[in-house]
């Protein structure tokens, strides 16, 4: 049986790996062209204040559709990171996001939150890339939030990165001097150490979707409550991710979670579509206001 399984594995997996390798090469070549041609689009997903329904921020989410077929970010971003292409792509996203949010900031006080990969953060000159995106929009630093995943923050404070703690802390501090806020993306996934929260100037926790309560089970709610309470007691303004139903929104309100985003409030939208939504709703999403309906 083992031999048969081994044979199978050869027959089944080897060609698949070859296809994957080929696909990988194809995507990286297409990405290189896309950078040159600026083939990307940024969509924006509202983040709402759970108490009022007001849009506090929008998350910039990169979209790429070579020849009209969308490729999911989770497929092309890791490849862009591997080839260093995320550096020019990320700089482009920052500039575009700062420009797009400018009028929403002026009209509704909305900030923009931009995902930054570890590769970008470690690139010398990252702070000047951010500052020039702000200057050219123009947008005040207080209207920009940078999302950095927990794993990047943890690895940069680890002993393995040599002088890591001070490097990243210094970098984040100089951004903060410009008013820029830092959010920990995918908070709660994979790390038991919270030490980095004490050492790094962090402003916001983006609570990973794994902790958005699905049902009303006590254990599940206990995790969500613990994370929300951690954020509240550290005076970090938590944002719950991937809220898809009114029940989930209501439970998060009961737990005193200040902010949320997810399909329940709005999908990520192209800038012009979001502009229409914000204009017609005056910056307060109707479906995001608390209801008086009790949740069982
Ligand atoms: P993320 O930063 O955690 O972004 C949230 C993801 O959740 C987005 O996926 C968003 O479309 C999705 N989402 C929002 N609401 C819901 C919901 O209610 N239910 C579900 N199931 N999903 C929801 P998206 O746009 O596919 O992006 C995936 C990841 O790609 C992002 O995760 C982020 O890590 C990365 N990414 C996207 N844009 C950029 C970028 O400009 N730069 C970098 N470095 N990474 C990016
Ligand atoms: Mg994010
Ligand atoms: Mg996230
Ligand atoms: Mg994520």
From TrEMBL:
Signal peptide: none annotated. The keyword Membrane applies. Residues 281-296 are annotated as: Disordered. Residues 24-282 form the EAL domain. Keywords: Membrane, Transmembrane, Transmembrane helix. The keyword Cell membrane does not apply. This is Diguanylate cyclase/phosphodiesterase. It comes from Dactylosporangium sucinum. The chain holds residues 487 to 782 of 788 of the full protein.
């Amino acid at each position: 049986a083992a031999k048969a399984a081994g044979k199978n594995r050869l027959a089944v997996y080897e060609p698949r790996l070859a296809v994957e390798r080929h696909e990988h090469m194809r995507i990286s070549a297409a990405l290189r062209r896309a950078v040159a041609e600026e083939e990307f689009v940024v969509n924006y997903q509202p983040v709402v204040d759970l108490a009022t329904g007001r849009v506090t921020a929008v998350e910039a989410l990169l979209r790429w559709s070579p020849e009209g077929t969308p490729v999911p970010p989770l497929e092309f971003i890791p490849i862009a990171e591997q080839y260093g292409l995320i550096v020019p792509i990320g700089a482009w996203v920052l500039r575009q996001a700062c420009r797009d949010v400018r009028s929403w900031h002026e009209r509704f006080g909305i900030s923009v939150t931009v995902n930054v990969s570890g590769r970008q953060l470690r690139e010398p000159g990252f702070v000047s890339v951010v500052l020039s995106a702000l200057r050219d929009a123009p947008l005040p630093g207080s209207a920009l939030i940078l999302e950095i995943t927990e794993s990047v923050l943890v690895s940069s404070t680890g002993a393995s990165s040599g002088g890591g703690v001070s490097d990243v802390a210094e970098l984040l501090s100089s951004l903060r001097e410009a008013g820029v806020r830092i959010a920990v993306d995918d908070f709660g996934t994979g790390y038991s150490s919270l030490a980095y929260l004490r050492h790094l100037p962090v402003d916001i926790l983006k609570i990973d979707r794994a902790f958005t309560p699905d049902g009303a089970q006590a254990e599940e709610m206990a995790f969500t409550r613990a994370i929300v309470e951690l954020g509240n007691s550290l005076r970090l303004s938590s944002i719950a991710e991937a809220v898809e139903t009114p029940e989930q929104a209501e439970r998060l309100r009961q737990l005193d979670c200040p902010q949320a985003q997810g399909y329940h409030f709005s999908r990520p939208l192209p800038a012009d579509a979001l502009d229409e939504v914000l204009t017609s709703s005056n910056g307060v999403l109707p479906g995001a206001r608390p209801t008086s309906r009790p949740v069982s």
